[in-house]
Design goal:
Layout (H helix, E strand, L loop, with lengths): L35 E5 L8 H14 L4 E5 L5 H4 L10 H5 L10 E2 L5 E4 L5 H7 L9 H6 L8 E5 L6 H9 L2 E7 L4 H16 L7 E8 L6 H14 L12 H5 L7 H4 L4 H19 L14 H7 L12 H4 L1
Parallel strand pairs: 1-5, 1-6, 2-4, 2-5, 6-7
Antiparallel strand pairs: 3-4
Bound molecules: adenosine-5'-triphosphate and magnesium ion (MG).
Length: 324
């Protein structure tokens, strides 16, 4: 056996990439350390969870940090934002232990970003898991084998505090909370923080608040300015300095199956999420946790077709994508 290609991990399922292309069995090099897992959560609907999960994950990955985005919402908006619709294997199969997380992992147009998509089946999971063993820990258990191969795992949560969100909170190291600056936003936030406290006392004593992200900010609105000021006054440096403006490119990008930085890199939305990623990463370094594990070398047949790449095996401590 080639010593440069240890068979740490293989899977033999074909056809798991977004376009339905074949993905060869993967071989992964030795894990370095575990990804930081972040649940993007807010029980309020339409506050920018998915937009943040998709574009922050893409921007972190653009900084060459191997990143996994897990779509944990039956609405599957994060999946369609990457052009993935009703995939054969998805997060549901992994939660129900019908496949390993790796088998449901898809390549994306960004070489350092992988996606575990969702679909309608996930609606049933909340009910099917009710009587299951370790029902709140299914996601944590499923993520365990892939965690060492990423720097960050971002989980896009549904707008509820049901069993799916509980799974995200049990699996996460920290929560990222998008907050839309509107009436009642702070009341909703207080409720969410009480839930985080309760989770700390039960399912996950280590759970932290990574930060609060002000989304869809329109500084011409008095109310938005007032809510932003109150959030900063109460939560101080837990609120990210970077704010996300309302930007039409951010709302258009998903219908093109792309994160905003691939749809319109020059837009204000793309710039804001790149700044947010930089601030997020600088906070990680401040916390003394810079990471560079080997990239999980999932083959992306679309890239190979587009750029005429030859498929190549992963080198120890690196990968084909890193060498490009
Ligand atoms: N900064 C922004 N500027 C303009 N539109 C935005 C912005 N952020 C989000 N949107 C749009 O607002 C809507 C809700 O955003 P998003 O889907 O990210 O929220 P969500 O919290 O994930 O919603 P849900 O609770 O339904 O999952 C979407 O149509 C999205 O395109
Ligand atoms: Mg969403």
């Amino acid at each position: 056996m080639d010593p440069g290609e240890p068979p740490w991990y293989t899977f033999d399922r074909e056809d798991v990439s977004p376009g339905g292309e074949q993905i060869d069995p993967v071989k992964m090099s030795e894990p370095a350390r575990s990804a930081r897992v972040l649940a993007v959560v807010n029980q309020k609907g339409g506050v920018g969870k998915t937009t943040t999960a998709v574009n922050l994950a893409a921007s972190i990955a653009a900084s060459e940090h191997p990143t996994l985005l897990v779509d944990l919402d039956p609405q599957a908006n994060a999946s369609s934002a990457f052009g993935v619709h009703e995939p054969e294997l998805q997060i549901y199969d992994s939660l129900l232990e019908e496949c390993a997380m790796l088998e449901a992992t898809h390549a994306t147009d960004l070489s350092h970003l992988h996606l575990v998509p969702s679909g309608e089946d996930l609606v049933g999971a909340e009910i099917e898991l009710v009587t299951a063993e370790r029902r709140e820990h299914r996601l944590r258990d499923a993520l365990a084998p892939v965690r060492p191969h990423y720097d960050f795992v971002l989980i896009d949560c549904p707008p509820s505090l049901g069993l799916l969100t509980l799974n995200a909170l049990a699996a996460a190291d920290a929560v990222l909370i998008p907050l839309q600056c509107e009436y009642y936003a702070l009341e909703g936030l207080a409720r969410l923080l009480r839930t985080v406290d309760r989770i700390r006392g039960s399912l996950n004593p280590q759970l932290e608040v990574e930060g609060i992200i002000l989304t869809m900010v329109d500084l011409r609105s008095n109310l938005a300015r007032q809510v932003a000021a109150e959030a900063r006054q109460h939560f101080e440096d837990q609120v990210f300095t970077t704010t996300i403006p309302r930007n039409v490119r951010l709302s258009e990008a998903p219908s093109h199956g792309k994160p905003v930085l691939l749809y319109d890199i020059h837009s204000k939305g793309a710039a804001a999420y790149m700044r947010l990623a930089a601030e997020f990463l600088s906070r990680q370094t401040e916390a003394g946790s810079p990471r560079k594990p080997p990239l999980l070398p999932i083959r992306d047949a679309r890239r190979e077709a587009a750029f005429g790449d030859e498929p190549a095996a992963a080198a120890p401590g690196g990968s084909r994508e890193e060498e490009e």
